[in-house]
């Protein structure tokens, strides 16, 4: 009965939201959502679903739990140093008008990190910088650009001073950065992608998908890159056979589309 309850929940979520929970690793997803359901006092997933359809805040909490909105500026700093000191300069030598996408951007720390790097290299104004996520609540926070002090702990001090305004424990992103990032809602597994990207950053999200869903996503990302463009993934998301997607390793966790 419990399995039937969860399967019906998956079916109804897909019917009403286009989110296919069957494409996520079931054990992790079910455990996470069971904790939330019980915390909110619902005995079954169907009663939880019916409540979500009536209460917007509960639905947003479900989305937040599902999409693991854990993000920081400059997460894994040595990886971002490569972006700043090697890959972006290389791209700018070829073309000053870059097109960059932060996929599954959560609450915005990642695209704002990109914006700071581009601003430092006098390229922000000429760059198209997209940022997408499935979670409306996360996107709302991203657009506001307000973060607790712990989120900026890895940001170089000079950048904190230049691109943030501190108000107690909160740090406000500068208007320059906010204006540069175009936030939009998107379901990676369902929606079509734009194309011609120099850089796509999608980190610490793909790990939650099934192998089949990962395969589809890597194909879609590869098609969205221009020849020579880079895909930057998370530290637990190494692609073991990048050639099948017309990609090749550029550095650890960076994959270049073949063709240049």
Automatic annotation (TrEMBL):
<keyword id="KW-0949">S-adenosyl-L-methionine</keyword>
<dbReference type="Pfam" id="PF03705">
    <property type="entry name" value="CheR_N"/>
</dbReference>
<dbReference type="InterPro" id="IPR036804">
    <property type="entry name" value="CheR_N_sf"/>
</dbReference>
<dbReference type="InterPro" id="IPR050903">
    <property type="entry name" value="Bact_Chemotaxis_MeTrfase"/>
</dbReference>
<protein>
    <recommendedName>
        <fullName>protein-glutamate O-methyltransferase</fullName>
        <ecNumber>2.1.1.80</ecNumber>
    </recommendedName>
</protein>
<keyword id="KW-0489">Methyltransferase</keyword>
<dbReference type="Pfam" id="PF01739">
    <property type="entry name" value="CheR"/>
</dbReference>
<dbReference type="InterPro" id="IPR022642">
    <property type="entry name" value="CheR_C"/>
</dbReference>
<dbReference type="GO" id="GO:0008983">
    <property type="term" value="F:protein-glutamate O-methyltransferase activity"/>
</dbReference>
<keyword id="KW-0808">Transferase</keyword>
<dbReference type="InterPro" id="IPR022641">
    <property type="entry name" value="CheR_N"/>
</dbReference>
<dbReference type="GO" id="GO:0032259">
    <property type="term" value="P:methylation"/>
</dbReference>
<dbReference type="InterPro" id="IPR029063">
    <property type="entry name" value="SAM-dependent_MTases_sf"/>
</dbReference>
<feature type="domain" description="CheR-type methyltransferase">
    <location>
        <begin position="1"/>
        <end position="260"/>
    </location>
</feature>
<dbReference type="InterPro" id="IPR000780">
    <property type="entry name" value="CheR_MeTrfase"/>
</dbReference>
